[in-house]
Design brief:
Elements: H1 3-19, H2 21-24, H3 29-43, H4 56-59, E1 67-71, E2 77-81, E3 87-88, H5 93-105, H6 107-113, H7 127-131, H8 142-151, H9 157-172, H10 180-188, H11 191-202, H12 210-221, E4 224-225, H13 227-238, H14 253-266, H15 272-278, E5 283-285, E6 290-295, E7 299-304, H16 315-327
Antiparallel strand pairs: 1-2, 1-7, 3-4, 5-6, 6-7
This protein binds glutamine.
């Protein structure tokens, strides 16, 4: 072969390597870390959106916080920004409560008693209950999520909460606490969620006492997490149900696939279709400003930034995860 041919092959190899940053270097630290750094700087000054204010305590959170974390199935953790700042998990909790309900009752119970179709409507929609013959429709919107709490084992609030919080702790690999001010603020103002639970009860789609289950649901939403906690929790889903930091299996792999399916269809509420189209990763948002996304077998990412769009999804978290997912070639479709 002529020298020029060797040169062409060399250049082609170089281009291929650079185009695929994850494969380019081993170990991966410098690549993932620099992608996080880039995402942070790219979106740091984006001030669009606004904090949730229908829960008064959330309106008071400093909206400048911006934290990004990636955890790999090998348990490597990459961080940038405000990754140790506690905030309320809000609706991201629904993913882990769904996981527990599936482990306790089996996946078919979720289909039969809650439903797994997208509503295409706002997360706290009452119209969705009225429009759907099955009534509750999805474990990741408020109606289905509160009903999922009512399915969990435990006869009273204390028993239910201690099992549920111990379950969350296993995912976080540490003892999580509750932001009592958020819990109180939401408890004092959650007439809408109470109405949803009462309505479901009237349709026989609620499986326990309204007061007890509403209290447990409100408490699960008030759990304090950091962006790092969320990424660690989500990494169990990225690692097929086995915790990357402890090597313990927390969920069956079958249930992981089903949770990820529901996250894909409903994790960002009425914007889930657009999210799947643009980013292509199962994800879940919370009105506290967190979003988790999972690239099965590759990584979990969590971003915290309190300002939301009109659907209740953090704007900077969406942008940052979109950027990170694209750079890491993570789109599952
Ligand atoms: N606790 C909130 C509620 O029930 C959760 C909503 C959310 O994060 N989208 O309204």
């Amino acid at each position: 072969m002529k020298l020029t041919n060797y040169l062409v092959i060399f250049v082609q190899l170089l281009v291929l390597t650079c185009a695929s940053p994850v494969l380019a270097k081993s170990p991966q630290q410098p690549v993932i870390q620099s992608i996080l750094d880039d995402a942070y700087h790219k979106f740091k000054n984006d001030t669009s959106g606004k904090n949730a204010d229908y829960i008064p305590a959330l309106a008071k959170v400093d909206s400048a916080y911006f934290g990004l974390v990636v955890v790999t199935p090998h348990g490597k953790i990459y961080t940038k920004g405000d990754v140790n700042q506690p905030f309320s998990i809000q609706s991201i909790s629904k993913v882990f409560t769904l996981a527990l309900a599936m482990e306790q009752k089996g996946p078919q119970t979720i289909v039969d008693k809650i439903g797994v179709n997208a509503t295409g409507l706002a997360f706290n929609s009452v119209t969705a209950i009225e429009l759907n013959k099955a009534r509750s429709v999805n474990p990741l919107v408020n109606a289905g999520a509160i009903a999922t709490v009512s399915l969990l084992d435990g006869n009273n609030e204390k028993a239910k909460w201690s099992a549920l919080s111990a379950w969350y702790d296993k995912f976080a690999n540490r003892k999580l606490s509750v932001l009592e001010d958020v819990y109180k603020s939401e408890s004092d103002t959650n007439g809408h969620n109470r109405a949803i639970a009462e309505l479901l009860t009237s349709y026989d789609r609620f499986y326990g006492d309204v007061d007890i289950n509403l209290a447990v649901y409100t408490r699960q939403c008030s759990v304090a997490v950091t962006a790092k906690d969320l990424a660690v929790m989500a990494s169990v889903l990225a690692n097929n149900g086995v915790h990357p930091l402890t090597d313990k299996r927390l969920m069956s792999s079958d249930n992981v696939s089903r949770v990820l399916a529901v996250m894909t269809t409903a994790g960002l509420y009425e914007n889930s279709g657009q999210w799947a189209y643009q980013v292509g990763l199962p994800a879940k948002s919370g009105v506290g400003g967190g979003i988790i996304a999972v690239s099965p077998g590759k990584f979990a990412v969590a971003v915290f930034s309190p300002k939301l769009d009109s659907a209740g999804n953090s704007i900077r978290a969406q942008k940052a995860i979109d950027f990170i997912a694209e750079k890491l070639h993570a789109n599952i479709f």
